[in-house]
Amino acid sequence: MEVDRTDGRTPNQLRPLACSRRILHRAHGSASWSQGDTKVLVAVYGPKAGTKKNENPEKACIEVVWKPKTGQIGKPEREFEMILKRTLQSICVLTVNPNTTTSVIVQVVHDDGALLPCAINAACAALVDAGIPMKHLAVAIFCCLAESGYVILDPTKLEEQKMKAFVYLVFPNSILSVLPEVSSTMKGEPMEHGIITSVTHGAMSENDYFLCLERGRAASAKLSDFLRRSLQSKVPGDSSKAG
Amino acid sequence: MHKKRCVVGHFEVCSCVTAFANFSPRSCLAATLIFSFLLSLLDLRSPNDLVIPANYSARSRSRSRSHFVVGVAKTPSKLMLMEASTSPATFVDKIVVPGDVVLDLSTFTNETIKLGGGLRQDPDAISVMKAGKLKFSKPNKYWVESSQRRYVPCMEETVLGIVVDCKADNFLVDIKGPAIAFLPVLAFEGGTRRNIPKFEVGALVYVRVVKANPGMNPELSCTDAYGKAAEFGLLKDGYMFETSTGLSRIFLVSHYATMNVIEPCSSRLLSSPTCPVLEELGKQLSFEIAVGLNGRVWVNADSPSTVVVVSNAIMNSEPLSGVQQKIMVEKLLQRIK
């Protein structure tokens, strides 16, 4: 079903991506990620000695602080912090530096739709910049479902407000491997088809959810390529852009 | 036809090999060898692709540097191993990101592989933990080279630490690592309970890492392996600044390099080959420098302007190549005159 988006994109098209690393001089790792007009800046400090009280001292601990562009910190910010913390905990190797804390501070520079996926992508790039050991990278996608049943990816804020339901999906990135295709799969599905995080808002049917998953997976391959290219640049201060 | 994995390893022949996969490993190997020989005769593959290694060694057990983790392949086999044309060669010297699988352990049988920083061992393969360039050093060392702001402590590395606290038995020293390091009070040349050095909080010390076990606080020492002072200890005056670990590794090429006193027109650097920036600067200026592998650099000279020039030259030299560094330093020195 053809749909008209205000900026002329097709339903599966993402906004222009831009990523730059090592932009903050004092932070141990930093990255800024922008999708269209949505821009998020993430700083990583750590690993530093000591964990918080209720955390397991045999593992590294990740602490997330979310700073909105304006206003006070309230429940939505706490929810974002929790989702980001759980996602980052599942991609980092926590046993390498036990009894340490890594702080991830997220600053929203501008919010124009798809804020949390943008923040997850930026946090992943910042963790790579800081040299925190990770199992694999994560790419995040925002899919939303309109009243009439069509799915669009990466909406702007105006488009987001008109939607019936939406879902944030985080997938592992596509990896290069020397192993032949067969052995890097689990139960017949490639590794890239795993889901790290899935958060839904609103009501959607199962079929709609699976449709969103498919679209999200296809787009995550493009995001994964872009992330790999931006990490390839030798000079860390370089920024890379993709239309 | 899809490629099946056989014990022998991965070869870039077409998938006809799968027909042989049900045979014993020896006949499979023989068949593959004959097949690739035939292919080379037909000029379909260059002769270099014939998979006979020149220097295969069954067991290489050299003494390892302690920061390499030794990984041993789990599947024993009686076959002579053939170096696969795909596996390590494809990723060595390329930039890899976390998650990439770079080595297939089933192709290395009865061998000791040494893994450096940035790599970890899954049950069957070696995968990457940090983004960087994958490096390989003969006979069997793999590691990922990357440049970070923080430091991962390793044995026998010289670092610059800042004293944070003094306890009864140790000084607590911050070396930009995940845990705070201990410098025993007696780890000095001729150190006894009666002549314990007095370091204030905030003092800069040039030390050597003695023990660096994961999860534990690293231990330092102000003597070299023979017990002599060898330029370790407190650094007075001068100026300290922080860079990334990659830049300091470029400066310290031999890991036993100590402090260098550089005089004009005669660089008496103890390590060679030297960094182009330091060489060029040393031709005109006279200064003292101490580089720690944790990214801290200390510079001391007679006049503050020399210190400023040297520090700026070093800080600006990270993204430049050797020739560009020389040009940058020449321009800088000309502007002062």
UniProtKB/TrEMBL annotation, chain A:
Pfam short name (any one): RNase_PH
Q: Where in the cell is it found?
A: Nucleus
SUPFAM superfamilies, alphabetically? Ribonuclease PH domain 2-like (SSF55666), Ribosomal protein S5 domain 2-like (SSF54211)
- Tell me where in this chain the Exoribonuclease phosphorolytic domain is found: 13-133
CDD domains, per database record = RNase_PH_RRP46
Transmembrane residue ranges: none
Per UniProt, the keywords (alphabetical) are: Exosome, Nucleus, rRNA processing
Task: Give the main localization category.
Answer: nucleus
Its family remark reads:
Belongs to the RNase PH family.
Listed name of the protein:
Exoribonuclease phosphorolytic domain-containing protein
At the highest ranks, the source species' classification is: Eukaryota, Viridiplantae, Streptophyta, Embryophyta, Tracheophyta
Automatic annotation (TrEMBL), chain B:
Q: What UniProt keywords are attached to this protein's entry?
A: Cytoplasm, Exosome, Nucleus, RNA-binding, rRNA processing
Q: Which residues form the signal peptide?
A: none
Tell me which Gene3D superfamilies the record gives.
2.40.50.100, K Homology domain, type 1, Nucleic acid-binding proteins
Domain K Homology, first and last residues per copy:
268-304
Q: Where is the Exosome complex exonuclease Rrp40 N-terminal domain?
A: 113-150
Q: Does the keyword Transcription regulation apply?
A: no
Location in the cell: Cytoplasm; Nucleus, Nucleolus
Top-level taxon of origin? Eukaryota
Q: Which InterPro entries match?
A: Exosome_RNA_bind1/RRP40/RRP4, KH_dom_type_1, KH_dom_type_1_sf, NA-bd_OB-fold, RRP40_KH-I, Rrp40_N_euk, Rrp40_S1
Protein family: Belongs to the RRP40 family.
Q: Which PANTHER family match?
A: EXOSOME COMPLEX COMPONENT RRP40 (PTHR21321:SF1), PNAS-3 RELATED (PTHR21321)
Q: What is this protein called?
A: Ribosomal RNA-processing protein 40
Q: Which organism is it from?
A: Xanthoceras sorbifolium
